[in-house]
Structures are given as structure tokens and as C-alpha cells.
Write the C-alpha cells for this entry.
Amino acid sequence: MLRSKRALISVSNKAAIADFAGELIAMGWDVTASPGTAGVLRQANHAVTDIKEITQIPAVLDHRVFSEHIKIAGALVAEPSEAHDRDREQFDIPWFDLLCIDLYPLSDTIAKGRAEKDVIDSTDIGGITLIRNAVKGRRIVIADPVDRTLVIDYLKKHGDVPEDVRRELCAKAELICARYCLESARYISRNQIDGFMGTRCIDLRYGENPYQSDAAFFDCGSGDGLSISNFTQLTGDKPSYVNVTSLDEIVGMLLRLFAAFSMHYLGKVPYIAIGAKHGSPVGASIDWDGEEDALQKMLWGDPKVIWGGEVITNFPISKEMAGILLSDARRKEIYGTGSWMFDLIVAPDFDNESIEILGSRGKRRIFCNPLLSALKPSAGFVYRHLRGGFVRQPVPDYVLKEDDVDWVGEPLAGAEFDTLLLSWAIAWSMHMNGIALARDRQLLGCDGQPSSVGAVQTAMSKAKEAGHSIAKAVFAANAFLPFPDSAELLADNDCIGGVLPKGGKDEENIRNLFNGRGMRVAFIPGAYRGFSRH
């Protein structure tokens, strides 16, 4: 029995499907389609065979069954062998070399909170079956509309699709099926079943250490515009594991600051610059008037430690700004080298001259993503792999709200309130008991460690070593202060106020201490403490 050029098309989204079928027909392909798709193709005056002409059975059970038939399965799964040809001839089974399909929009139905019957009706069974049969038969499988043009181009140029491309399309179709079934399992189990899978899209230079050589970033198809896969690398070496994890951390800090200012200022957001070392904050600032001022304050928060780290901004980088990020004569006078030696610089955009300047250090990775200038909150869950499984929690999306605040003393306002938001966002991005100190919209010092008083001492020490005065600074603590010693240290160094979560047996004493020393401190509900990166 002949193995002919014959395609099976069955799609729920009919957009542009007539054009695709027309391209196949023009190349001499025969087209078979599911009833709904066949109707659309006939309206476009295309010759098409309805699938029921092969099965001799119409769609039944409220359209739940129409393609699950031995002739359809056999046409996709049969091998190109004499034995299978004899079986096909005996049972009048055709041959399909191409399957173009999509699946019912199950995720959309679930996301809309529709009734269970609607979810059941949106659960595709026939489509999954067709895909898996076609994959087993190593056919040309198009389960994503974006691949239609790819396949047409191959067929026009070569008359076929090569085996390696068929394999890639089959693997992609299997991934689509797997994600679809996982979505159904989540829904049916009421989220007692979960998981994730991804496609290897960025080969990394190495893992956390050079001997961990087989390292890569896998994209999970989340649609998140701030996924690592949606950043464009403009210069530099292939990124390492530390580069991409650091990038994700500094994006999170920027997102937190962006959300806080946007909420408090009705959509208005200042220029934001953040510096980090391996994803841990070492410099940060905001400025309402100028990007260059924001950069300078960020750089000189901790000019020694920031050397060789990472920088992210919510504004494009110009030639002048690139010069600021490249080197500084004052730094050379103090430390013997003027270069900041940043390993990673991230911004919404870079002009050509800034790329040339910053790219002069060949290894430096420059990444851009236009969404950094118009950030939107993340949603869903975050995961961490543990031995034998993983833990899951909702995205830490809390934003400091005035309605949540219980003030000791008069609320901070103006530049002091901006500084409070800055210190809060940094402290809430730190590991363990984090303390951040800021003044005049600039981070002065920060630290995170098991001891709260130790974190305060170290943050102050870093600030003073960098030449900053703690007087009139604003603090943020991402956890409650268990003893008065931290509060006393902050007060003794003339901090004017801060923010911390409620809690601890000494909370009343600490409140009284702040009040007695004239400090203006915001207490927020303990549920909104800022633990992160565990």
C-alpha cells in the first residue's frame, strides 16, 4: 500500500490554518481534517477529506470521540515496512506523514475559574492520542503553530523534513502533551500534584564551579517576560550558573523596588540602580531627577565590595553612563584601580556607543530586556529542589503598604519615606536576618546573618568603612528584633527611623525604646516578614 504525501490537520484555533493547508496542497499534498477544520478548509475552496470518510463513524458522545480509531492511529504509527504495509492494505489503513494539531485550551479554562464540567469538556483526549501516535511513528508533528512556517520552508526547499528536525518537533510535541497532562493533574488533584519541566535553551559556561561543566538554563514555558530566556546577551563570554542566578536575584530586587514606588506614587517610578555581588545587594539608590545620579550613588554605596559584581537599572544606558560604569578617577586614588570591573550589566537597553565602551572588557556580559523599564508583578509559585523532591511556595510578592503600618512616632515622609522604601526592598531581598541602612535615597550598608545585632554591627561597619555617617539613616530589618540590643545600637548611632515586622517577646520594650529616643519606626504584621533565598 502506498505511503503518500498526506497530512492530517485537526485544530481548535482555526486562525491561518487555511493558508497552511493551501501551502501543502500547492506542493501536491493530500489533506485530511477533523470535521470542524475540514469545514473551514472547504470554505477556503481547498480539497479536503473529512476524517469520518475514513472511519465511517461520525463524532459521537457529544463530540468526545471522533479520531480515536484504528485507521487513524494506524495511519500515524505504522512503520515504513513491508509488513506494516500489508497490514494497512488488509484493513484499509491510510498513511499520514504529517500531523498539524493543537489542543483544547485547558489552561485558559482553568484560569478563568470555570465550572468543572467546562474543564472536563476542555480536556483534550483525541489530540493527545494523535500526537503520541504520530511521535511514535516519527512523523512530521506540528503541535505549535510557530513551527508551521519552518515545516513549509523545508518542504519547499527539500521536499521533506530531515530526521533531526522531525526529532526536535516530536520532542516538542511530547513536551506539550506532558505539560498539558500535568495541568490536568494539578486541577484534578486540587494542587496535590505539581511539577515542572523545561527546554534546554541556554548552555552555561559551567555550574557554580568549573568542574560542574554540564550546566544549562531550561525554560519552563511560563510566559514570564523576565525569564532568563527573554534577555538578550549583547557582549561577553557565555554566562555561568552564577551569572544567571545572580541575574535572577537582581531582577527580583528591581521588581520589588519598582512595585513599591509604583504603588505609593500612583504609577510613577524613580530611576533605580542596584549593584550586587553574586546576587547579594552591595549598592542601591533611587533618584527622581537623573539617571547618572542614581548610578553614582549606587556605585559609591560600597565602592570597594561592588568591584567585579553585577549592576541592574530600570533605565537605558547611554555613552555617558557607560563611562561612569567603566571606571572612576576617584576610585583609583582610593583603591589603586579606577575600573569597576563589573562582570554583569543589565538594563532595558544600551546604545551602540555604550556597548562598545562596556564591551571593551571582552568577558563582560551585557544583557538587555525592555521590560525592565515597565515591570509587572510576578505570580504563581516558586520552587526549590531538595533531595528526593522539591518544595513550593507562592511568589513572595508582598509590597510595603501604608495601610499595614503601625507607626511609632510620626510617619516618615518625602525623601525619608523614599529612603525607607529603598532600605525595605533591600532588606527583604537578603538571606537570614537582614539589615539595610540607607540615607538620602542611597544604600549605605547591609548584612544578613544568624544574629540580628551582628547584622546591625556589620552593616554599620561596612557603611563607615565606605565613608558614610549613620546619623539620620533609615534602617530596615526583615525579621523582628528579638532583643533590645539591636534597637539600642541603631538609636545610639542616631538613626531617625526604620521598618521591621512585629513580633518577639521584647516588642513592647523595643517600641518604647524607639519612642523614647524620638525615632519614627514602622511596624508591619509579622506575616509579612522578609525572609528570602532559603
In short: The first helix runs from residue 17 to 26. The chain has a mean pLDDT of 94. The chain has 19 helices and 21 strands. Residues 6-188 form a domain with the Rossmann fold fold (CATH 3.40.50.1380).
